[in-house]
Amino acid sequence: MVPISSSRRHARLRPVAQTLGVGLVGLGVYAAVGHLGYLPHPPFQLAVLAAAAVLFALRGRWPGPVLLVLAALTGPVPAVGPVTAAAAYSVARRMARPRPRARLLAAAGALLVVCATVAGPRLGPGSAAYGLALGLVLAPTAVIVPGLVGTVRGQQGRLLRALRERGDAAERARRLADSEARIHERSRIAAEMHDLVGHRLSLVSLHAGGLELALEGAAPQLREEAVLVRRTTRDALRELRQVLGVLGPLARDTGPDALTHATGTRADIEALVAQSRDGGIAVRLDWTGPDLDARPAPVRRAVHRVVREALTNVHRYAADAHATVTVEHDTAAADAATDGARVRVTVRNGARPGPPAPAEEPGTGRGLTGLRERVELLGGTFEAAPLPSGGFRVAAAVPAEPAEPGGGPAARRADDGPGTLTAAGPEATWPDPAGPEPAAPGPDGRRTAEVLTLGFGLAALSALMVVGIAFVYAAQPSGRSGPAPLPRVGMTYAEVAGYGVLDNAAVRAAASGHEPPRPAGTAGCVYPFNGATERHPGGLLIARYCFDAAQRLIAIDRFDVPSVRDATPWETP
Fold first, then answer.
1. Which of 4, 147, 277, 353 has the largest CB neighbor count within 10 A?
2. Among 177, 229, 173, which Cα is nearest to 205's?
3. Per-residue pLDDT tens over the stretch 170-180
4. Which of 397, 271, 392, 390 is nearest to 323 (CA)?
5. Rg of the chain's alpha carbons, rounded to an integer?
6. How far apart are CA 551 and CA 153, in angstroms?
7. CA 347, 351, 353, 359 torsion: positive or negative?
8. Per-residue b/e over 69-86, b at no fewer than 16 CB within 10 Å?
């Protein structure tokens, strides 16, 4: 039995957790609305909520139909609103095409409003108008707003993925360019080895052939030795060509820039500096120590290449800046037995006097990469970096007597395992000189923050849904409509008082002496304030409620009494 990894287990449990989460939020809305007393048919609504949670789990397979069905269920059962909101967010986030997404969200919102309007008289607030109002409240919170948030979140994720892919492609292109530069430099080295070492082996073979002819008659016993030397030289030349084929095609330099066996002496460096001066660059050469004519040809060629490439960059990017070429050859290095002797080459240029002018052809950096490859093959070090003052500095340190030709760090990479240059030739790749990239941090923290944010958002939308539902149900009219009923004959005193009809001393005083005779059997009367209204200037309409001994209302009389008007100050005698 194959064990299931933690990531796969989490991937399987995530849909279940999401379904349970939205189901619990919907149950919270169901409980809140029921606590407020606005929950008709509770068993039916609870069953529909459970069915909606099951449909939510199928949104990945049928996103559009599931969202439409949930929107239709939200109309008669508002507790399904959180489930519909989560489905709208998820569906809108996954849909990349804008027009189908907009049509789906609009259809879901319209379907919710229609179903709420139709279900209003039986399963809603009590009328189609208030059902329509409930649908208009639920549509934005359950469909529109979650759909818009999901759209923004999905576009952000797709944009980040596109940017990450472009960054990865750019990084691969950069590494490929560096690998091509290294391979090109190895090809140049192979060409130099073929031209120089092959030429020497050809001379050895030629002299061995002449010696063989000379010894044929003079010393036949030594002729076989000459034949052996000639054949060994020919085999060595053939094996050299085979080994050089590993480094790549023999792309030889031609013209004045071709490197020969004598390249790299002090005279050659002075010639490069003189050419730069003739080109208009203020360049100075500082040479310390003896000439390099006694050093191996690979060392001299490496020094020549570093100076030439650095001055070429000065010509291209800082033609009007001052440059300095420094070559340090330790005097102790004249002894071939000195192990620590090194040749240090530094080319430094200052900043341009004015603003930097863009080069006609931007560089690719492959020249510096090739220099690094050549120097490291000899066991040296190479640095190239801008200066804080605005200039640039190229520095290389090459062993004056390499222990083994090509025995530097770059050559030793062939034994480091996969990712190094092998007999595959140009198809091989090289590791990044800066070392392996650090692993990106895990998405656990980001995922937790996203889950918390979405949970708080869904809770806020659910609270808005509860407020909207309560507002619509509270705004509906009660069962009693029209003006408040009036007391009628036959009611008891307590029932009449329940309608707000209570005795008022001022009204009783106003009616004293002006009221008509009381009905027979009257035990007492009540003169309420709300029974008197102004009928005309100078008169009041007063209502009188008379009760018998059993406190039963036996008569309701209305009569006019004159009002008393206070005299104005100027009318006072």
1. 147
2. 229
3. 888 888 887 77
4. 392
5. 51
6. 74
7. positive
8. bbbbbbbbbbbbbbbbbb
Assess contact for 314 and 281: CB atoms under 8 A. yes
Contact 88, 142 (CB under 8 A): yes
Q: What φ, ψ does residue 437 adopt, rounded to 5°?
A: -75, 145
Distance CA 201, CA 57 (A): 79
Distance CA 125, CA 39 (A): 9
The distance of Cα 219 from the centroid of its chain, to the nearest Å, equals 85
Choose among 86, 147, 80, 72: nearest CA to 117: 72
Structure tokens at 97: 């095409």
Distance, CA of 184 to CA of 249 (rounded, Å): 9
pLDDT tens track for 206-235: 677 777 777 777 777 777 787 888 788 877
Mean pLDDT of the region 267-291: 87
Determine the Cα–Cα distance for residues 116 and 19; give it in Å rounded to an integer: 24
Dump the DSSP string for 430-482. ---TT-PPPPPPPSHHHHHHHHHHHHHHHHHHHHHHHHHHHHHHHHS--S--S
Residues contacting 350, CB < 8 A, separation 6+: 318, 321, 322, 323, 389, 390, 391
476, pLDDT greater than 80: no
Give the pairing type, strands 392-399 and 342-349. Answer: antiparallel
Q: What is the mean pLDDT of the chain?
A: 76
pLDDT band of residue 192 (cuts 50, 70, 90) is: low
